[in-house]
Specification:
Elements (H helix, E strand, L loop, with lengths): L2 E8 L5 H14 L5 E9 L2 E4 L7 E2 L7 E3 L2 E3 L3 E4 L10 H9 L8 H8 L1 H8 L5 E3 L2 E5 L6 H7 L4 E5 L9 E3 L5 H9 L4 E6 L4 E10 L2 E4 L3 E5 L6 H5 L4 E4 L6 H17 L5 E9 L4 E8 L9 H8 L4 H12 L2
Parallel strand pairs: 1-2, 1-7, 8-18
Antiparallel strand pairs: 2-3, 3-4, 5-6, 9-12, 10-11, 10-12, 13-14, 13-15, 13-17, 15-16, 17-18
Helix pairs in contact: 2-3
C-alpha cells in the first residue's frame, strides 16, 4: 500500500532557495509507485499545498492535514527538506513529535544541538582521533573584547553565524582590522557567532545514513575552490568549485574517517542522512571536525546525490530506503 508523504520545503531563512531546489530533486526521485507525495511550501506567510491544477491550499496545523477536492488528506510521514529554520533546528521536529507524525530527519534535540556549531563541537571533541579548531563563541547580548579574541586566537580566522548554514554570513579574516566587520556581518544572520582558527589542509564532506538498519558511510567528496573558502556562491554555482567523488585518499585514511564519522553519528544520536564536513591536515594525518548538517542539500550540485551515485545506487532507491528507515 502506498505511503502518503508530505514533502516540506521553503523555510524562513535565506536558505529557502536551496530548500526549494532540494525538494525538486527529492520529488523527482521519490518512487511514485510507492509514495503519494504532496509538496508543502512553508513561508512566513503560511503553510500551503500548491497543486498544479488549482489555487494553493492552506495546511490545517492542528493535525497537519489538507483538504483536496473535498477529501481530507492525512500524512503517514513527512520528508523535511527545509534547510535552516524551522526545519533544521528542531522546531518542526518537536511539532511533528507532538502530533505523532514520523519524519525523515534527526529528532528535535539532536537537530537543535547540531544546528549550533559551538555546542556540537563541545559534544564531539572527545571522540578518538577527532580534533576541533580552537574557537571563541560570541552572543549578541553579551559584551566581547576584540583584543581578547586577537590574543586568544591566531590569524587567519573564520567568522560564521553559529546557527547558520550554506556559508551565509561567513567570512575569512586575515587582518585584525577586518575582524569587527566580519563579526557584525555574522551577527546580521544569527544571535550567536563562532570564531575559529583557520586549519590548513584538504577539505572534505561525507554523507552518513542509516539504511536497512545499518549505518552507512557514503563515498567521501573532496572540495577544492579558488575562492578564499567554500562560500554560498562556490557551493551552489556550477563550476565554482572542484568536487571529486570519491576523494583521492588512501584506503587506510578512508577506513579511519569512516570510523570517526560513524562515531559522530552515534554520539549525536542522528537519524536519516546527515553530512559531516571535515579537514585533513598534513599527509592525511589529523582529522578536524567542521560541522554536521542534519538536512544536507539535495540540489543538482549537492554532495549527497553525487555520493549516492558514486556508491552505485540510484537516488530513487536511496530515497525509498531512507523513507522506509525513518517513517516505516
Amino acid at each position: 500500500m502506498k505511503k502518503t508523504i508530505a514533502l516540506l520545503t521553503g523555510g524562513t531563512t535565506g536558505e529557502w532557495v536551496v530548500s526549494v531546489k532540494s525538494a525538486a530533486t527529492i520529488a523527482h526521485h521519490l518512487d511514485a509507485d510507492k509514495f503519494d507525495v504532496y509538496k508543502i511550501m512553508l513561508t512566513q506567510q503560511g503553510w500551503f499545498y500548491e497543486p498544479a491544477d488549482s489555487v494553493k491550499i492552506e495546511v490545517d496545523r492542528n493535525d497537519f492535514s489538507i483538504m483536496v477536492k473535498g477529501r481530507r488528506v492525512m500524512f503517514d510521514g513527512v520528508y523535511i527538506a527545509i534547510h535552516g529554520s524551522p526545519g533544521e533546528d528542531g522546531k518542526l521536529q518537536g511539532y511533528f513529535d507532538m502530533l505523532g507524525i514520523p519524519y525523515t530527519t534527526c529528532d528535535a534535540l539532536t537537530s537543535a544541538i547540531s544546528m549550533n556549531k559551538g555546542y556540537t563541537k563541545a559534544i564531539v571533541q572527545n571522540i578518538d582521533q577527532l580534533n576541533v579548531a580552537k574557537s571563541v563563541q560570541l552572543f549578541n547580548h553579551t559584551p566581547y573584547s576584540l583584543d581578547t579574541i586577537k590574543s586568544t586566537l591566531k590569524l587567519p580566522l573564520f567568522i560564521k553565524p553559529n546557527n547558520g548554514g550554506s556559508s551565509i554570513g561567513m567570512s575569512k579574516v586575515t587582518h585584525p582590522f577586518d575582524l569587527k566587520d566580519a563579526i557584525d556581518k555574522a551577527f546580521k544572520e544569527d544571535s550567536q557567532v563562532l570564531i575559529e582558527e583557520f586549519i590548513s589542509g584538504r577539505e572534505f564532506s561525507v554523507g552518513v545514513v542509516k539504511l536497512d538498519g545499518k549505518i552507512t558511510v557514503l563515498p567521501i567528496t573532496e572540495v577544492e575552490t579558488g575562492k578564499e573558502f567554500f562560500d554560498f556562491e562556490a557551493k551552489y554555482t556550477p563550476g565554482m568549485a572542484k568536487e571529486t567523488t570519491p576523494a583521492n585518499l588512501s584506503t587506510v585514511t578512508r577506513d579511519r574517517v569512516a570510523e570517526i564519522v560513524k562515531h559522530v553519528y552515534l554520539v549525536l544520536n542522528c537519524r536519516g542522512v546527515v553530512r559531516i564536513d571535515f579537514i585533513l591536515s598534513g599527509a592525511e594525518e589529523d582529522f578536524y571536525f567542521i560541522e554536521v548538517n542534519t538536512i544536507p542539500g539535495q540540489t543538482a550540485t549537492s554532495f549527497i546525490p553525487q555520493q549516492v551515485a558514486a556508491m552505485g545506487m540510484k537516488l530513487n532507491d536511496f530515497y525509498t530506503k531512507l523513507v522506509r528507515e525513518t517513517i516505516g
